[in-house]
Amino acid sequence: MESMDRTALITFEQVSYHIDHAGTPRIALRNIDLSVYRGEWLAVAGTNGSGKSTLAKIAAGLYSPTGGNLKRSIGREPAVQLIFQNPETALIGETPYEDVCLGLANFGVSNEDIPSRALDALRQVGLAQLAHAPAASLSGGQKQLLAIAGCLAAEPAVYIFDEATSMLDPQAREGIIHIARRLHREGATILWITQLLDELVWADRVAALEEGRLRFTGTSRAFFYEIGDDGMSCCEQLGFAPPYTIQAVRQLVKHGYRPEPLPLTPEQLGKAVSAL
Ligand SMILES: Nc1ncnc2c1ncn2[C@@H]1O[C@H](COP(=O)(O)OP(=O)(O)OP(=O)(O)O)[C@@H](O)[C@H]1O
């Protein structure tokens, strides 16, 4: 975190998004000030309807703010790739290989480079063996891996995962997180939209939304462990139950043992307890 590059690639300046829903005005986002810095993993959390997807779509350029400004300082294409909740929406080819190739052709990659880039991307997500299988035969998790392969083949500056694991089983979820962590270690910038709180532990920074307002930005440790005057963490104030690991650490602290740094993952908790 300390060594993080402070170059802002995407900046929300007082961004609002108002919707006219069948004559009834709705406000999806209200005066959001937020930057996504190069090389960081920024997670955006919030309950249903808090504005996360709207924020993702504005960051991706699919929606324009109805108030304020969105600034992008990326300078190359594709600037951003969005991985959706439902991978079906992104599938265009009959096979994984064809799917990634069609995507690359869309980005204007030369015919000469397409096959090697497509195969390399499929290899990176573990789908090389299924490159020529019917896309319809893939599991939900494999389809999501394919969507990611299509994105990483395009080499975007920023990856936006919009609740990309929410329709997957735990094992497939692990696979997606594993790939995102590798991309991040290799320098990718990640905007990770989620309401699954145990996914926040991989983020450098967490931004939390409530009813379209930005309620918190800070580390996941602060989100889970900093207690407000009302005796609750920001996580609880937003109506979420803290993940099991965090609850277990809170119990340890209550009983007089405060591991430092406070564990976020089961592995960190295991180490802290074994050091007792
Ligand atoms: N096209 C639309 N028409 C009407 N209302 C909309 C539209 N898009 C978003 N909204 C409203 O804006 C608010 C924010 O929606 P958004 O999808 O961004 O929230 P979210 O945090 O991503 O929710 P979820 O986790 O359920 O996907 C909600 O009240 C939603 O009903």
Automatic annotation (TrEMBL):
Domain ABC transporter, first and last residues per copy: 10-236
First-level EC class: hydrolase
EC numbers, comma separated: 3.6.3.-
Places the protein is found: Cell membrane
Primary location class: membrane
Membrane topology type: Peripheral membrane protein
Pfam families the record matches: ABC_tran (PF00005)
A molecular-function term among this protein's GO annotations: ATP binding
SUPFAM superfamilies xref list: P-loop containing nucleoside triphosphate hydrolases
CDD domains in the cross-refs: ABC_cobalt_CbiO_domain1
Coiled-coil ranges (or none): none
Classification via InterPro entries: AAA+_ATPase, ABC_transporter-like_ATP-bd, ABC_transporter-like_CS, ABC_transpr_CbiO/EcfA_su, ECF_ABC_transporter_ATP-bd, P-loop_NTPase
Keywords: ATP-binding, Cell membrane, Hydrolase, Membrane, Nucleotide-binding, Translocase, Transport
Family per similarity comment: Belongs to the ABC transporter superfamily.
Record protein name field: Energy-coupling factor transporter ATP-binding protein EcfA2
Organism expressing this protein natively: Paenibacillus konkukensis
Classification of source organism: Bacteria, Bacillati, Bacillota, Bacilli, Bacillales
Gene: ecfA2_2
